[in-house]
Amino acid sequence: MIFIELFWTFFVIGAFTIGGGYAMLSLIESQVVSVHGWLTEAQFTDIVAISQMTPGPIGINTATYVGYSVVQAQGSAEWICVLGSLTSTVAIMLPSFIIMMVIVRLYEKLRSNGVFSGVMSALRPAVVGLIGAAAVVLITPENFIDWKSWVLFAISFVLSMWTKLSPILIIVGAGVAGYLIY
Q1: pLDDT score of 107
Q2: Cα–Cα distances in Å, from 170 out to 48, 62, 152, 173?
Q3: H/E segment holding residue 79
Q4: Rounded to the nearest 5 degrees, what angle is found at the Cα of 34, between the Cα atoms of 29 and 37?
Q5: Which helix (H) or strand (E) holds 56?
Q6: Contacts of residue 142, Cβ cutoff 8 Å, sequence gap at least 6
Q7: How far apart are the C-alpha atoms of 113 and 127, rounded to whole Å?
Q8: How far is the C-alpha of 141 from the C-alpha of 87, rounded, in Å?
Q9: Residue 120: CB partners within 8 Å, gap ≥ 6?
Q10: What is the dihedral of CA 89, 6, 136, 144, to 10 degrees?
Q11: What is the pLDDT tens value at each position of the chain, 182 positions in all?
Q12: Which of 176, 159, 175 is nearest to 167 (CA)?
């Protein structure tokens, strides 16, 4: 039963999220924490942090970890937990795959259509709003980061916006600074 719930939950999230992984986070959080109660807010925040550190899209990584954690919480064997990960991962990717296959076939016909161009333009602000909602969800009193983390963030932001330093160098520097501070 949990596999069907995982599949349907992540399929719907994948079908109704436009804008990529960060835009998915608020919907995933809503479903996983509030609607189903599979995870606590703190567990979800930990999963998002791990998902950001691992290679790949954050939405898919989050779905993978959530699927594993939810099945694990039911006391299942490790290989069954891996099936939970696989179920969530496939479910969140499947709508995009289906939509892209349809769009590829229809794009040449729709490219010059004014309505199609208008809809694509109208979706841009919605994507920004979904990404902003994900940021607000992650900055809650329970997950509020201390002032030292905010200083590291501010320094990293300034360095990335107004210098020509490599982003990798900034990330490594922030990681070393964080390790030394904490």
Answers
A1: 73
A2: 21, 24, 10, 5
A3: helix 78-110
A4: 100
A5: none
A6: 41, 42, 45
A7: 22
A8: 32
A9: none
A10: -90
A11: 899 999 999 999 999 887 777 888 888 999 999 999 999 988 998 988 888 888 888 888 999 999 999 999 998 899 999 999 999 999 999 998 998 888 888 877 777 788 887 887 888 788 888 877 777 776 666 666 678 888 888 899 899 889 988 888 998 999 899 889 88
A12: 159
In whole angstroms, give the CA distance from residue 89 to residue 51.
Answer: 13
Longest pairwise C-alpha distance within the chain: 57
Rounded to whole angstroms, the Cα distance separating 67 from 100 reads: 24
CB-based contacts of 27, cutoff 8 Å, min separation 6: 13, 16, 17, 130
**Residue 39 near residue 66, CB atoms below 8 Å:** yes
Contact 33, 44 (CB under 8 A): yes
Q: What is the 8-class DSSP label of residue 145? A: P
User: CA geometry: angle at 135 spanning 38 and 18, to 5°?
Assistant: 80
What number of other Cβ atoms are within 10 A of residue 112's Cβ?
A: 8
